[in-house]
């Protein structure tokens, strides 16, 4: 099972920054707090060089308490052309 989970984590970490943030945004919008927490763990435990996301960037995206899916985007998805980590 660890091999599968590692593969999934690597796949998630290799995604475009906007896709990572949109997955997290979707989890918040759908009140899937366990899903959001799992993504949060994966992205914050990985180094930035390996596709992780820093907590400052997550606070910028979802607010200081990481609970507002529209904090940065104002109700829209994260844009693939402009979203950076």
Structure described in brief:
Helix content is 54%, strand content 0%. With 85 residues, it is mainly alpha-helical. The chain has one domain.
List the helices and strands and how they pair.
Elements: H1 2-13, H2 17-29, H3 33-45, H4 55-62
Helix pairs in contact: 2-3
Descriptive account of the structure:
The protein has one domain (2-62). The radius of gyration is 12 Å and the shape is globular. The protein has 85 residues and is mainly α. α2 runs antiparallel to α3. The chain contains 4 helices and no strands.
Average pLDDT metric: 94
Class by alpha and beta content:
mainly alpha
- For the record, give the distance between the C-alpha atoms at the N and C termini, rounded to a whole number: 30 Å
Question: What is the count of structural domains?
Answer: 1
What's the assembly state of these chains? single chain
Number of DSSP E strands: 0
Largest sheet: none
Shape: globular
- Indicate the radius of gyration in whole angstroms: 12 Å
Question: Stretches where pLDDT falls below 50 for ≥5 residues?
Answer: none
- How many individual helices? 4
Order of helices and strands: HHHH
Please indicate the percent range of residues in DSSP E strands (runs of 2 or more): under 5%
Q: Name the helicity range.
A: 40-55%
